[in-house]
Each structure stands twice: as C-alpha cells, then as structure tokens.
Amino acid sequence: MDIAHIEPFIEATVGVFRDMLGMESQFLTPYLLGADLKHEWDISGIIGIAGDSKGVVVISFTAELAAEITSVLVGHKVASDDPDVIDAVGELVNIIAGNAKKGLEEFRLSISLPSIIRGSNHQISWQSDVPIVGIPFRTASGKFHLSVGLENIISS
Amino acid sequence: MQAKVKKPAALVMDVLTSGTNSALEAGQRSRVVFLNSVTLAGGIMIALFAALNFSVGNLPLAIACASVSAIVFANFAFIRATRRFLAGGAVDCIIIFLFYLLLAYSGGEAGSGVLWSMTYPLIALFLLGPVWGSAVALSYGGAVAAVIFHPLLNKSGFPPLYSARVVGTYFFIWVFALIYETVRRATQARLLEAKKQTDDILAGVYDGIFLMDRNFRLGAVHSKRLEELVESTDPAGKPLLDLLAPALAKKDFDAASDYLDLFFAGTVNEALLAEINPLSEIGLNFPRPDGSSVSRRLRFQFIRIASAASPFPLMGVASDVTDEYALKRKLEAEEKEHKRSMESLFQIIHVDPAMMREFISDTEAELETVSDLMRSEESSGAEVLETLFQSAHAIKGNAALLGLQEFASKVHDYEDSVKAKIDGGHQWRDLLELTLALADIKKELDSLKFLIQKILRFQSETKTAGLRDGSLLTWSIEKIVKRESARCGIPASVRFEGFNRDSVPDEYRKLAKDVIIQLIRNSFAHGFEDKRTRAERRKDEAGLITLSVAWDEANVTLRYSDDGRGLDPELIRRKALSLPEFSVKAKTMSAGELGKLIFHPGFSTAESAGLGAGRGIGMSLVKRRIGEAGGKLAVRSALGRYLEFVVSLPIPRSAEAVS
C-alpha cells in the first residue's frame, strides 16, 4: 500500500468536511482492521480503485453524523432516518472522490462512482488477502472513518 | 526433352495462346485465344480465296488477296513474337474493317455480304475493349451506313428502309455487345480480387489448410504452409495419409486411416469425431532425401463441409504444435524438479511446521493486540509507538530464531522506522505511514502462513515427518538454543528441570516463550564468554542454560539461568555514565540498582544494534510482559559465574481448578 495513493483521499475528505460542512476533523490513530471486525458505522460510501493499485476506499459515518451532514447541506434539521440522508452522503462521497481524483492524477489510477450502503452495523466483506487499514477521524458532531484496502499491482 | 514431345491438344493451345499457355488469367487468355483464332482463320481463308482467284485467272484480286493474307500471317507472327495483343488486335480489326466493308459493298448473293458486318461489334469489343472497341465499331457502322445508303455505292440496290433496318440491327448488336463486355469485365475483376485475397490468405496463414475429396485426396487449393508441414512441394491430388505415411508409425497410420473413414459413415457426430481424433496431436518424423529426418508435432483438425454435393467434402487444418509440446514437457519436468527440490529443501531446513504455525498464530495475536491498542482512543500516539516498537522487537526475535531471516529483517527495518519516530517526534502522518507498513508486514505474514500451510499439506502427503506431541515448548526452546548457538558460534546446551506437558499453564505459554526467547538471546549476546575465557574460568566449553518450573500455592515460578559471565556492575555503570539520563545517578548506584538498569527501555551494553541484540529493548520487553501478567521478576547474578532470572506468575484460575 502506497501512502501516496491514500493521502489524496484523506486530504479530500478533510477538505470537504472543512470547506463544505464547516467541520474540523481531528485525526485519530490509524490501525489495522481485522477482516471480520465489526464496527459501529451506519452508512458507508464505497469507492473502487483500479490501475497501479487495486482495491477499495470506504468512508463510513455514524447515523448521527450523517444526519448532521444532511442538515448542514439541506439547511434544516433532518432525522437520521430521513431519505435525504442517503442522497446527501452519496453526494458528499461523490465530491470527495472527485477531489481525490485531482491528487491522483500523476498515477495510473481510475476511481469508480461511489456506491452507498446503509444499515446499522453493516459489515463489509473485504478481499481476504489484502490487509485493511482503518483511519478514524473525530468531528464535533460525531466520528467518521476511512477504511483502505489497496493492493499494489505495479510496485514502484 | 519432355517439353518437345507435346500432345496435339497442348500444341494447339500453345499456338492459340502465343506460347503463354496458362500463364495468363482466364479472361485475358480467352481474349488471346480469340485473337489468334481470328487471325489464323482469316489468314487461311484469304489465302484460300487468293488461290481460288489465281486458278480462275483473276490475277489482280488474287494478288490483292495474297498480299492481305501475307499481312495477316505477319500479324500472327508479330503477336506471337511481341505478345502485344492490343496492337495485334488493332491490326486485325483494321483488316476485318476493310474486308467487311468490301463484302458490304460488293453485295454477293442477294446483297447478303452486308450480313457479315453484324459480327463486327463483337469482334471489335472483344479484341479492343469497351472504349476503343466501341470507337472502331461505331466508325465501321458509319462506313457501312454510307455504303448502303449512298446511291452510287449501294451496289445491291437496297431500298432506304431496308438499309435503315440493317443499320438499326447493327446498332443493337453493338449496344448489347457493349453491355455484355462491361458486365463481363466487372465480374472478372471482382473474381480476380476475391481470388487474390484467398491466395494471400492461403500464402500467409500459419496453419496448413486443405480440402479433401472422398478418397482423402488433397484439393489443388491449399495453404502454402501445408507444404512445409508435411514436407511435400506438391501435395495436391495426393491422399493425405500417403503424405504422412513415411513419417507416421504403422499403428498411428492404421488408426488414422480407420478414423478418416468415419467421416463418411454419416452416423458419427462432429463432437465425438473431434474427441477421438488420433491425429489431434501426433509426432511425425519426416525423412529427408539427404538421409536426415525432421521431427515435428502436428495437430490435425477435420471439419465436414456443409454442402453435401461438394467434390471436396472434408476440410483439414494442420498446425505445428512442436514448440507448444516442448514447452509443456519442460513445464512438467520443471514441476517435478520443483517438487523434488521442495522436498529436499524441507529435509534440509527441517522446519517443524507446528513450531512455524505457533509462530504465525503468536505473531497474528501480537498484531491484533497492537491494533486493538491503536484502535482504542484512550491510547496516546507515544504509547502506540512504544507498543509498536516492543511488538516489532518480539516478532523480530521469534522470526530470527526460527530462521526466517527475510521476515526478521523486514520487521527489523520496521523497528528502525518506529524508533526514528519515537526519537524524532511524530505527526499523524507518521502514524499512518507506520500503520501502512504494518499492513505490509501483515501481508508478508499471510504469505508465510500460506507457505507453511503448503508445507503442512506437503508433509501429510509425503509423511516424512509427523507432528510432535508432548511438550512443544521445551522442544522449541531446544531448537532456538541450537539455532542461536550456531548463529553466534558458541556451543551451548539447555537443561530442563521439572518441565512436563502441563508445567506451564496455557495462559502463560506465549508469555513464557516470549520471555525465554529474549533471555536466550540475552545469554548469547551478553552472557557466554569466548572459549579462552571459559577455559580460564574452568567452565565447560559449551555454555549451559538451565530452565526449571515449580509450583506452590500461589505462584508458578520459572527459573532461567546461564553459566556465563553474569552481570558486571562496572560495565553497566560505564554505559550508564555515557547516557545523559543516568550520568549523575550512576556514580552512586549500588550493584543491585545497576542490575535493574538492564530492564530499562533503551539500555544496552552492546556496541551496535543488530538482529541479535543491542536495541536495549529485549529486557524491558521481558519486564513489561511479566508486569502485565501480574508477575514478578528477580535477577541474581555472580560475576563470572552465572546469571539467573526468576519469574513468578500467579497461578491462573483455570489451572487452579485443575490442580
């Protein structure tokens, strides 16, 4: 896993949170994510990556943070089960993916349109032979989390 | 010699084609044959006419005819010599032009001479092509019209309406001849193009493609490559099996012969036929005229042609699979070799898979512990780094002792980078970098695991070694001592006291192993003296490590001792004085206090850090691990004689129940 492939996603995420939502993100210690590890996320956006590196970047949110994000975006308070939440998170992840793309221009990488998964404590089945790195963040309104499982296809 | 004895038909063909025979394509050839026929027939006819006139004494006409005849024969010779067919055709056209005009003018029987004119457009178009032919034919039409319409020239006395019909008929013949000729030329060109493409394909394709008739004789059209594959310059018309016979074993020849017959049995389906094809991959040895032979492996496929009425109802495709076959053989041989070398490798290293498996599961557990700590939000970055460092050290030690040098040095590098971050301060980015590097180590571990599983499977297949039962712990300690002894070049042995299957509770198995490994490394790095010193101190040349376990009501006590140089308080003091942290305190420390310094993180008396020792982390790891398990650690030492570590751990609940 090349840090240069991952940093653009982190920068894009933190940047979008700061610029669009006015939320400052605090970095927490990254860790190795066991393949079967259950977590407490309620909604996740999945971005596929192909090219020099192959794999997936997942951005996960708690229901509270997702609702808060939606509230900021639509301009009024929404509940966490509001249908707008999916759209708002989808749009947010889409923008993050788009911004990350700029940072990845120097590599031969292409990234997919994000898909959104919702459900409390949903589980993501990762490719078993690639270690997954979890990168947690804290904002004033709740936590979010980047999970990265990338496999170098062409080692530099 | 043979060329001179020609059959009459061949001779006629030679004359009519001006010696080109079949060299020209069919369209052009028919034109040349026509040209020569017309020329010859005309020349002979006019010569006969001249002879007739000579015999009746009509001298002027006879001479005229003879000279025209001479011109016509000269033209024939000219065509034959130069093969300028268009020029020859033009000469013919002019002569016929004048001759026909003469016939039209002279009239003959009831003015029927004009009827000859009707063939002129056909002759002109055929000999000169649509453009020049039309020009000539239309000029002739004009000339004839002038002759039969002009009262002075119209010898036969045709009424004007009759003449008009003659001219009209002539015109129609010209039109239809033109249409026919144009269509014919276009078709010819298309056919020619298609044939050229087919020829190119057959010349370029890398397989031997051919058609066979019901007697399995090859058709005339086949790909060029076929000739090379079956070593025959002209396979057309020969039965396939005759071509292969000199290169084919008798058994295969019979099988192939029976097989081909099935294609016309009608009852056997295509898929089955393909499956039982004895020529699907066949080794052939073609003898060469010079006595050598060429070996080739060919794959033949046979396909029925769909149209049943075809004179060649079977298509064959032959491909050269010699290289493919050789590669396959080579791969098989290599795989065999690989398996053999794996077997010998296994015998040489004689890795005990159970031990390896233990290493893997221990390391996985270690990584999980670290990851849990990293995940916990309570832990600070510094704490995480410290744990990463110690874990890496423990993993490295285990790996090195099992002889996994590659993996150990990878972890060693990791340890270095963690150390750099601890000393140089860290950012969040550094933590991410370390986590990613940890992920790489995890991946490496996964592939090791895969390898070990493979070895295990291999073992159970070959049954060269069984799993050991009994105390894996003592056995692996022995192994580790042996390996470390070989690595450091110091002979040593280990003695166990009170060890049995249950003497170390399961809960402490990993802890005991981690601790003992560090202590063994310590003994070899710092304890055992060189041969000379040991001899001076009246010690055995081989170092001795003694391990014992004892239980009392509350504790299980593990004693580890070596008969090395023991702790040297002055050496420790000197080292401590060089470190800013202890430089003042060390001056006044007692021997006991100095002894405790070896457990301090970052303290080592070794000069430089290597895979074996020198990080100053091993002893602090021992102390920390024991502390975490609620145990106590004591050190006893006599300078120049021995060093003993006493580890006492509370008896775990589960073991209490058992005892």
Overview in brief:
The complex is a heterodimer of chains A (156) and B (659). Chain A has 156 residues and is an alpha+beta fold.
Please name the defining characteristics of this protein:
heterodimer, A: 156 residues, alpha+beta, Chemotaxis protein chec, 8-stranded antiparallel sheet, 8 strands, B: 659 residues, Beta-Lactamase, Four Helix Bundle (Hemerythrin (Met), subunit A), 10 strands, 60% helix
Question: In words, what does this structure look like?
Answer:
The complex is a heterodimer of chains A (156) and B (659). With 156 residues, chain A is α+β, with helices and mostly antiparallel strands. Chain A is 33% helix and 31% strand. Chain A has helices spanning 3-21, 63-74, 84-103, and strands spanning 26-27, 31-33, 43-51, 53-61, 109-111, 115-118, 132-139, 142-152. The mean pLDDT of chain A is 84. Chain B folds into 4 domains: 8-199, no CATH class; 208-320, 2-Layer Sandwich (Beta-Lactamase), CATH 3.30.450; 333-459, Four Helix Bundle (Hemerythrin (Met), subunit A); 471-659, Histidine kinase-like ATPase, C-terminal domain (Heat Shock Protein 90, 2-Layer Sandwich), CATH 3.30.565.10. Chain B has 22 helices and 10 strands. In chain B, the strands form 2 sheets. Chain B has a 5-stranded antiparallel β-sheet with strand order 2-1-5-4-3. In chain B, strands 6-7-8-10-9 form a 5-stranded mixed β-sheet, with helices on one face. Residues 464-470 of chain B have low confidence and may be disordered. Classes of the chains: A alpha+beta (156), B alpha+beta (659). Chains A and B meet through α1, β2 and β7 of A and α12 and α15 of B.
List the SSEs and their pairings:
The complex is a heterodimer of chains A (about 160) and B (about 650).
Chain A: H1 3-21, E1 26-27, E2 31-33, E3 43-51, E4 53-61, H2 63-74, H3 84-103, E5 109-111, E6 115-118, E7 132-139, E8 142-152
Antiparallel strand pairs in A: 1-7, 2-7, 3-4, 3-5, 3-6, 4-8, 7-8
Helix pairs in contact in A: 1-3, 2-3
Chain B: H1 8-16, H2 26-56, H3 59-82, H4 85-106, H5 120-149, H6 160-204, E1 208-212, E2 218-222, H7 224-229, H8 240-244, H9 250-261, H10 270-275, E3 282-287, E4 293-304, E5 314-320, H11 322-349, H12 353-375, H13 381-401, H14 405-424, H15 428-462, H16 472-488, E6 492-497, H17 506-527, H18 531-536, E7 543-551, E8 555-562, H19 569-578, H20 591-596, H21 618-628, E9 632-638, E10 642-650, H22 653-658
Parallel strand pairs in B: 6-7
Antiparallel strand pairs in B: 1-2, 1-5, 3-4, 4-5, 7-8, 8-10, 9-10
Helix pairs in contact in B: 2-3, 2-4, 3-4, 4-5, 5-6, 12-13, 12-15, 13-14, 13-17, 14-15, 16-17, 17-21
